[in-house]
């Protein structure tokens, strides 16, 4: 090849690389509110695969650290986590394949990740099936109360209004209600329910939701197992916990009869490296004729399946517009965003990942 031809080839290759990198950078935008007067809420999917492997634990810590850094820029008022905080609630000897961390190490890890937010922003972490029993909900014993006590995060504690009970009748934040008054004066009541809530838990929740003190509140329910990937309410699962209520029963017994439940969030579902298998969304009408927007968001088997990296760092940003009637949803990964080499992958742009809905 002649010298001039070589120079031309090198030049063209360099220009191709330059434009390719430039195009990638243009595809990335720093997360920001569409309206400076909006506020936002962050939805974290099931962390279990992040914490069961030592190698993955820094990813979840990166996610909570990113939230902490963006409290002011995104005006974050609340963080919700959909449950399955650990892979096994009480396994002493991990098998090395489905995790190389004993359960108590997993609990310490997830609690430490959330400590990045302690004293900075309120957060509510639901319990999932893996947070009970030994491996997965053989009974309703859990280490949750030890690692997420009431005084762990004073920002959350300040919003706590109602406390339910665990299966032993003891007060427990696995079932609780928190009052948040938005920057525009709209009152929200966040009600978190244990995995597959016991009949007595739903009775408690119904009494709370129907209290006159919360009649004008927008009620948000957070639980673990609720919708499947076909956007249907889950009817039944094979766990051993007694008097278990899954999505359909929660809808029929609590959400549908209510006059003020307007949002339901959950996680739980997934399939290896299949985004659509991890998410669901549906709209129904409650007893007051108001829309109930129901969203399931998870990511735990993305990034290599059940034994992969834990979910590629995906989370959701929900922006509540100043009118508090419109909500914008975006799906973002701080893991991809951290490096210029991968920033072009940091947003999921599909219509099921980036959309809006309205609140009554």
Automatic annotation (TrEMBL):
Q: What is the lineage of its organism?
A: Bacteria, Pseudomonadati, Bacteroidota, Sphingobacteriia, Sphingobacteriales
Return the protein name: Metallophosphoesterase
Query: Carries keyword Signal?
Result: yes
- Calcineurin-like phosphoesterase domain sequence ranges: 66-269
Q: Which domain of life is it from?
A: Bacteria
Give the species this sequence originates from.
Olivibacter ginsenosidimutans
Q: Which UniProt keywords apply?
A: Signal
Signal peptide interval: 1-23
Q: Which InterPro entries does the protein's record reference?
A: Calcineurin-like_PHP, Metallo-depent_PP-like, STPP_CPPED1
